[in-house]
Design goal:
Blueprint: E1 2-5, H1 15-19, E2 24-26, E3 32-34, H2 45-54, E4 60-63
Antiparallel strand pairs: 1-4, 2-3
The structure holds iron/sulfur cluster (SF4).
Length: about 60
């Protein structure tokens, strides 16, 4: 699985960071940044799906 983050859609709720702190952080302005750019480790896949499903802006996509 890989994650894609559309920074143009991100408005900075940081919900992704709360749900998947190993996969997301926020930059100095409070917008999300991806911490994993290659395949998501298998043990973090459920967190990745949770973050994608709960981003209010639809800024996170997961690709199997
Ligand atoms: S939950 Fe979505 S809108 Fe909020 S910081 Fe994360 S990517 Fe951005």
């Amino acid at each position: 699985m890989r994650l894609k983050l559309d920074r143009d859609r991100c408005v900075g709720h940081a919900r992704c960071v709360e749900l998947a702190p190993a996969l997301f952080d926020v930059d100095d302005e409070g917008f999300a940044v991806l911490l994993v750019h290659d395949d998501v480790p298998r043990e973090l896949e459920s967190d990745a799906r949770l973050a994608a499903e709960n981003c209010p802006e639809g800024a996170i996509a997961s690709e199997e």
